Give the backbone structure.
Amino acid sequence: MDTKKYLKLGLKTLREVYALERLVEEDLTISQISFENLSKVSLTAIIDRFEELDLAKRVPSKLDRRKTVITLTDHGRDVVNK
């Protein structure tokens, strides 16, 4: 993990970094990204921030239209993979 890279992106917490790195692996729902000591409400705020920074976006699930999947944008993938 390159902390300086993430700070330049505007990420402020390790929770944000962890969530972003989880999305590099695969598209996930908020429930799938959540982890110990991070509520879904907090994670929703993190995903909102990712959308503001054009790092990730919410898209309807292709398998279950009741669910929303979080996926990295092209910009998000470029930034994380540098």
